[in-house]
Design goal:
heterotrimer; A mainly alpha (204); B alpha+beta (744); C alpha+beta (152); A: mainly alpha; 2 strands; disordered N terminus; B: alpha+beta; Aldehyde Oxidoreductase, domain 4; 5-stranded mixed sheet; Cytochrome c domain-containing protein (chain A)
């Protein structure tokens, strides 16, 4: 099937990223973060994870990206009957990149409600990382479980935040969209703090 | 073969009777100055010539004065002529012609009189004649009100017959064979010995012959094209990207422009700073126009970027800034002092005995938003103004252009273009006037002005809002009375006001879709109240019947349900007009009304008459876990005669999609004086996955020829609302319905 | 900047932020690709970049990476593409302004999936807006085109 080739091409595309925001990965000293502080860091992480800029594309096996947040009113699936498919890049239907075009050189302001773009092929997060509508405890347990988080420890999660330009976009969405809370660096710092503090979840 | 040939003014001047060895039937009449006010004189001139057929030694050109905004009338106008003229389908050019009083629209008279379309009384017909005369004297050439076919049906066939008989006379004169022995087929005169003379070869001879008129028209049973599937003349171009819309045309030396005008429509520009805009690449000039700023550049995108970089100081809107105040204005207009007209008062609805149902309804502002944004190419020179754009009102357009440019309308040359939709927006002149202002600043250089989509939404002149206050009365399981009051601003006054024309009488469009439905209620009162002018509004496909038709049919449905009657049976029982009753019975039969449905399914029926077309529709919906899915639609309409069955089906299905889609999710609302909906993301209407199966039946029981561009639209909202009620028990009294339910 | 459109190389001197759409329309003069919304809501500007359907209003020319095919490049009035042929047979167009984009979206889908189910058609073709409401005919024409392509 031809779409599998495109899928392969788009996976390679994830390696590409433009010189974007520089993130420092400086984990706090081992033992310096109490469980309480780590849980506080987690609460901030969850504010980010549950923010529409992030959660709209962290959907489950429906493969339906969501439209929610201040500029959308009631949450609803992405308009135009968009289905990203099991490929999570829309290869079976309309590819995400049909509208969410690759954008690296271009710098100009984008119109409100135009399709978000980065120097990567736009895609849904992996199906295991289903965040949309999930509670803090649910997201927390998913994110610390190597079987559900792409076999990452907290340093790898922080590094992923450094490299994935779609995640960078969440803090710089432009076009009248509300950015994710805090800053990318603060978010990375919270992930590191949560990690050093033992990746606790409220149900522990 | 080009689909549309460009017949310039020059050609017409040369060709008043014979052009380059050819003949132009009736071009002389088309060139006559409209100074003679006597109807009799004009009729005589018109009887002598017809301005729709032009033949030279190269080709046959048919003039199709009704603009084509997608409804396919270019093809159907050509077919009417070709049918009588025996042309080979497609072996001719078609032109939109030039603005001329000769192309006055008889159909407009039908809608301009205060008689129900189903009223064939002598009084009604007399009034139609009088208003028709006025329309003619005022040279109202235009496309709208679903009038293209009513206007063209007889006169274009007569034009074809006249051309055919004149060509036969020319052949007879040339060959000595009596006319009675001549036949015509596929663009030729056939002699008894089988030899052929092409029309084009007879053109020069025909030019010397007085056109032969009063030829009887063929019986429909003899038709070769009409009533049968025809390939639309524009279909290949529209399937290959080769159709040139106004937005696509190019003129030598042309530059690109756009404008940004106060988004508070009609508000002033108090100041602006274009420093940043002028520094952008590709930008040639940024300058003020009426209430805004224009940018001229080497590319439309540069121009759009430029006006976006301008800092504006906008003045306030000349209407209430917030949407709530618009509704309040309507609420406050249900008083004696605002009564525009009491259209019906049959029996006495105030005293009739029975149970009452009372309800209030709202129909919102809605944008036309045709996909081709407003645009025009204009070139201003010392000689006058030349303009290329697609428009529904050619003569008014030349007058408006002339007024802006400070010249005479005769100095304006207008080339009408295929339109990428209109739905009424291309009845407006604001963008035309702006394009002329831009070109005046760039004198000598043709400039293509194109709206950004955001500009188009901000200056859409949406459908008027309306509000209904209604009481239905039922007794013994039957509807026994209906009292419908509708308040809305006058769309005709708003539109006319921008043309400097007043509206002398009541505005039929406040009440359209409510007063004119030919039900035989014993007690029926229909009062229209005119709210003050609010946001500027314009005719939106089917105009008043969208709001008032929704209000009327929904209170009727509510009353029928309260009475415990069957929605279809009760409508049929109440109906007092045979073609309308047949339309209702037909959708009942098509949909197997009364059949088994799943518990989460429901069906609604509605009937609304607009533009003389009885229209009945059944909608079936499924309540899919809280999401409404529209499954199927059955629609029956009586247009008198279906001229092109394929295009008819397409237009009706499109009308259903248009009506349902906007009823589902579209409205324009104002805040801070500006429309909050700036692009299609917030005004989406229907998309393909939401489209139901749509079954169409064209009926031919009514005596008059009717158009079908608009009538499928108004039944959509009430039939959908009635179906949702049937499926869920939830009665929705305000569009768009997605304020109350979710759609799949 | 260089780009290849319908097999022909073009050189344009424009702001790299300029959307491909406006390079095609106002610089190269290929007007079959339409401007409708500018924000990927209507699909009228759909072209192919290396065979994939792309909204040309969303691709900055500076970021274009691949060969462009427009509606003019897949067929013409004399030699219709299977999708165009089906569009003519079903007389899909009303105003026709959206149809270039509809046809390009359909052609791209059928290239990858010549036997699309109704659900796939509904998913793929719902990003293209048709204000005239020709959707029933688009559905039918896509199926006819798919059959033509499978038989070819």
């Amino acid at each position: 099937m031809k779409y599998l080739m495109i899928l392969a091409a788009s996976l390679i595309g994830t390696q590409a990223f433009a010189a974007g925001e520089t993130v420092e990965i400086n984990p706090p000293a081992e033992g310096s973060i109490s469980t309480e502080d780590a849980l506080a860091a987690w609460d901030r992480i969850y504010e980010v994870a549950s923010h529409p800029r992030c959660s709209n594309c962290h959907v489950g096996p429906s493969n339906l990206p969501m439209w929610s947040g201040p500029s959308y009113g009631k949450a609803r699936p992405h308009g135009m009957n968009i289905n990203a498919g099991e490929s999570r890049v829309g290869a079976e239907f309309v590819q995400c990149s049909t509208c969410h075009a690759y954008r690296e050189i271009a710098t100009g302001d984008r119109l409100e409600h135009s399709a978000p773009q980065v120097a990567m092929d736009w895609r849904l997060a992996p199906v295991e990382a289903e965040w949309f509508g999930k509670s803090s405890v649910e997201v927390c347990n998913q994110l610390r479980n190597p079987e559900l988080n792409g076999d990452r420890d907290y340093l790898a999660i922080a590094s992923h935040l450094d490299h994935d330009l779609i995640l960078h976009w969440a803090w710089n969405p432009g076009a009248g969209r509300e950015p994710a809370p805090y800053s990318l660096q603060e978010h990375v710092n919270d992930v590191l703090a949560w990690g050093v503090g033992g990746m606790p979840c409220a149900n522990d | 073969m080009g689909i549309v040939s460009s017949i310039t003014r020059r050609t017409f001047l040369i060709g008043s009777s014979a052009i380059a060895g050819g003949v132009a039937f009736g071009i002389f009449a088309a060139r006559q100055e409209p100074e003679n006010p006597l109807v009799a004189t004009l009729e005589e001139g018109e009887a002598t010539f017809n301005p729709w057929v032009l033949i030279d030694s190269e080709k046959v050109t048919l003039i199709a004065p009704h603009g084509d905004k997608g409804q396919g009338v270019l093809s159907t106008q050509a077919a009417l002529i070709a049918e009588e003229m025996d042309l080979d389908w497609g072996d001719f050019d078609v032109s939109f012609g030039e603005p001329s009083g000769a192309y006055w629209n008889r159909g407009f008279a039908e809608e301009g009189v205060p008689f129900m379309s189903t009223d064939d009384s002598r009084m009604a017909e007399t009034m139609r004649g009088i208003v028709g005369g006025i329309t003619k004297l005022a040279q109202v050439q235009g496309t709208g009100g679903s009038t293209s076919m009513p206007d063209s049906y007889v006169k274009l066939r007569e034009a074809g017959a006249m051309a055919r008989e004149t060509l036969k006379a020319a052949a007879s004169a040339k060959t000595g064979v009596p006319v009675s022995d001549l036949k015509t087929e596929i663009g030729k005169v056939i002699l008894p010995d089988g030899s052929e003379l092409k029309y084009t070869d007879l053109a020069a001879d025909a030019a010397d012959i007085t056109p032969i008129k009063d030829t009887p028209l063929r019986d429909p049973s003899e038709w070769k094209y009409l009533g049968k599937p025809m390939e639309r003349l524009d279909i290949v171009a529209k399937s290959t990207g080769t159709m040139m819309y106004g937005a696509d045309l190019s003129v030598d030396g042309m530059k690109f422009a756009t404008v940004c005008v106060n988004p508070r429509q009609g508000g002033e520009m108090l100041g602006f700073d274009a420093t940043a805009a002028e520094a952008l690449p590709g930008v040639e000039k940024v300058f003020p126009i009426t209430n805004g700023v224009a940018a001229v550049a080497s590319n439309t995108w540069y121009a759009i970027q430029a006006v976006r970089a301008v800092e504006f100081d906008w003045g306030p809107a000349p209407y209430p800034a917030e949407q709530d105040a618009h509704w309040t204005a309507l609420e406050n207009s249900f008083g004696e002092e605002n009564l525009d007209s009491e259209w019906r008062n049959d029996g006495d609805v105030t005293t009739v005995e029975g149970e009452k149902v009372e309800a209030e309804y709202r129909s919102p502002y809605v944008a036309h938003a045709p996909l081709e944004p407003m645009n025009a190419i204009v070139k201003v020179t010392d000689d006058g103004v030349e303009i290329w754009t697609g428009h529904q009102m050619p003569i008014f357009l030349t007058q408006q252009v002339a007024a802006v440019a400070g010249i005479e309308p005769e100095q304006v040359t207008f080339h009408n273009q295929f339109m990428g939709g209109s739905f009424g927006h291309r009845l407006e002149f604001e963008h035309i006037k702006q394009a002329v202002e831009v070109a005046m600043e760039m004198k000598g250089t043709p400039v293509k002005m194109t709206y950004s989509r955001e500009e188009d939404f901000a200056h859409d002149f949406p459908r008027h809002i309306s509000m209904g206050r209604c009481t239905g009365v039922h007794a013994d399981g039957k509807v026994v009375g209906l009292d419908v009051a509708v308040s809305s601003p006058s769309v005709l006054a708003s539109q006319g006001g921008r043309l400097g024309q007043g509206l002398p009488g009541p505005d039929s469009q406040i009440a359209a879709g409510a007063w004119n439905n030919p039900y035989g209620f014993d007690n029926y009162r229909m009062r229209a109240y005119r709210a003050p002018e609010l946001a500027p509004v314009s005719s939106w496909r089917a105009v008043g019947a969208n709001g008032a038709g929704f209000i009327f049919d929904t209170i009727l449905d509510e009353t029928i349900h309260a009475a415990g009657a069957d929605p279809l049976e009760e409508r049929i029982r109440l109906m007092d007009h045979e073609p309308s009753r047949i339309a209702l019975e037909t959708v009942g039969e098509m949909s197997s009304w009364g059949g088994e449905l799943a518990p989460n399914q429901g069906r609604g029926v509605a009937y609304v008459e607009s533009f003389g077309v009885p229209t009945a529709q059944v909608v079936q919906v499924t309540n899919d876990d809280g999401f409404i899915k529209i499954d199927k639609v059955w629609i029956a309409l009586d247009v008198g005669r279906v001229l092109d069955p394929v295009n008819f089906e397409n237009l009706v299905q499109g009308g259903v999609v248009f009506g349902l889609g906007h009823a589902m999710n579209s409205e324009i609302t104002y805040s801070d004086g500006m429309a909050l909906q700036t692009n299609y993301h917030a005004h989406e209407a229907m998309r393909l996955y939401q489209t139901p199966e749509i079954f169409v039946r064209g009926l031919e029981n009514q005596p008059k020829m009717r158009g079908v561009g608009e009538p499928p639209v108004p039944v959509a909202a009430p039939s959908l609302g009635n179906a949702i009620f049937a499926a869920t028990g939830q009665r929705i009294r305000e569009m768009p319905f997605n304020k109350y339910v979710d759609f799949v | 900047m260089k780009l290849t459109v319908n097999g022909t190389e073009h050189e344009v001197e424009v702001d790299p932020n300029m959307p491909l759409l406006w390079v095609l329309r106002d610089e190269i003069g290929l007007t079959g690709t339409k401007y409708g919304c500018g924000i990927a809501q209507c699909g009228a500007c759909t072209v192919h970049v290396d065979g994939q359907a792309v909204r040309s209003c969303q691709v900055a020319i500076g970021d274009l990476n691949g060969d462009v095919t427009t509606i003019e490049g897949i067929g013409n009035p004399e030699t219709l593409h299977a999708v165009q042929e089906s569009w003519v047979e079903h007389q899909v167009a009303q105003c026709g302004y959206c149809q270039s984009g509809q046809i390009m979206q359909a052609a791209s889908m059928l290239e990858f999936n010549p036997d699309p189910s109704d659900d796939v058609i509904d998913a793929v073709m719902s990003g293209n807006l048709c204000r005239c409401g020709t959707y029933p005919r688009i559905r039918a024409a896509v199926k006819t085109a798919a059959a033509k392509i499978r038989e070819a």
